[in-house]
Queue: 2 jobs
Job 1
Amino acid sequence: MNSIKKLIVIGIFLMQVVSCEDLSSFSTNPDEIYSGNIVQPEKVRKGFGKFSRMELTINIDSIDEKPGSIKVESQEETEEPEVIFDNVSLRPVYSLKYDTLSNFDFPTGRLKNYLFLAPITSAKYHNGVALIVISLMSDGKIEVRIIFGENTLFGIFVLEKQKKS
């Protein structure tokens, strides 16, 4: 009976260790960046050109203080890129960590989700502030959603970590 109790305790401990995933591997080093394109179906893309790209730096260890930065260039096939976010700092919503909304989840392979604000640097959007939703994915990628205005900007970007060029 004593050995059964030990096995149960060990099993519970192992389940807790497995469920507490270390997300620090998502952090970018100074020579790294997450980069990727906007998701293509036009129905999930508003205000961003078909060839839009994003770059993201992220620091999981200081996610509540200095989480990282984004750069987004919107581009159609025959146009010059328009910079929407020019390496702007992500702004944490400090009170959010005390609200149950901080534990929101989407299905399908997301390890953790975060909400941030980011100032838009393009004058076209009158210095607005966008909602940024970042999802750390189980395959090591990061998915980012940008939402601004009722129907002004909406885009989903799938990013992969790479060395800065």
Job 2
Amino acid sequence: MVAVALLHGAITAECYQDEFARDPRIDALRAKMRVTEEPRFTAEYYDPEKRAVGNSVQVFFEDGTATEKASIDYPVGHCRRRRVSVEK
């Protein structure tokens, strides 16, 4: 879904449809991605007091520049962000 968000600028319900999966740009972009574990995210996921679903993303470009790392511990839809989910 990260590739879809990078290509389309957002994730919507339509992004989960089969036609999105057929877009060859998604697989091409996914092939360039590197996924690594962040130990803090794993620990907080299993911590019953937190039950966080942490994620982060940083984009590195071919010219050597990069975006800042964007991180979130509780994405929209998580019970700790219920108000945000309801407002959308």
